[in-house]
Amino acid sequence: MKMLAPALKGTHVPAEVCILYSHYNDWTLQQPMQPNKFFNLREHIQLIYNALHDRNMAVDFCRPSENLSKYKLVFAPSLHLLSGGDADLLKLYVQNGGTLVGTFNTGLVSEHSLVPNTGFPRDLTDLFGLEVWSFDPLPPGEEII
């Protein structure tokens, strides 16, 4: 690699895909009384990252509050804690032509860990075209038939 360093200096492979990550969200999911005690955010994010990596796609990690306009595709993996401002930024990103993929648990609580009195996902029901009023997570290995 040392011999290649001069040839590689200044090169950059821009990512067109982004995975949203928030330390506050991660910390919140580690607190007691979460929807599913078997869920691991890092493993969930790793599944998405691996799928993209296996397809040779460069991936950036960003906070939900960052400017996402340079990305064609943004993943919001279990973005449990979501502020109203961050929800507005995600809506703006989609309105401007971006594609947002949200997974389960996205938008369950506000930045103050308050559950919305409307359905889930908090402040994104219009964006995703769905409204969840209640859910019951299953333990590992259990299925509904």
Q: Would you give an account of this structure?
A:
With 145 residues, the protein is an alpha/beta fold. It has a single domain, classed as Rossmann fold (3-Layer(aba) Sandwich). Helix content is 28%, strand content 11%. It contains 5 helices and 4 strands, in the order αβααββαβα. A 4-stranded parallel sheet has the order 2-1-3-4, sandwiched between helices. α4 links the parallel β3 and β4. It is globular and about 55 Å long. The N and C termini lie far apart (54 Å).
Q: How far apart, in Å, are the first and last alpha carbons?
A: 54 Å
Q: What's the SSE pattern?
A: HEHHEEHEH
| Number of E-state strands | 4
Q: What is the residue-averaged pLDDT?
A: 86
Question: According to CATH, what is the class?
Answer: Alpha Beta
Q: Give the DSSP E fraction (strand runs of 2 or more residues).
A: 5-15%
How much helical structure, as a percent, in the residues?
25-40%
